[in-house]
Design goal:
Layout lengths: L5 E6 L5 E6 L5 E4 L7 H14 L9
Antiparallel strand pairs: 1-2, 2-3
Length: 61
């Protein structure tokens, strides 16, 4: 059975911290475009996304 979507925080090969949003089916649906110097920085990035995403507009070309 599939679980809830989850934000994962991980250290990349370049020793920078990143986050990704994983859907309940296991697909990565969003990620941090840039690495963070610390794990706490990556977590702050997640909090920011969670706070502003409900109000984000959709742009299509």
């Amino acid at each position: 059975m599939a679980g809830q979507p989850v934000f994962e925080v991980y250290e990349d090969r370049g020793e920078e911290w990143r986050w990704r949003l994983v859907a309940s089916n296991g697909n990565i649906v969003a990620d941090s475009a840039e690495g963070y110097a610390s794990k706490q920085g990556a977590k702050r990035g997640i909090r920011c996304v969670k706070r502003i995403a409900p109000d984000a507009d959709v742009e299509a070309e």
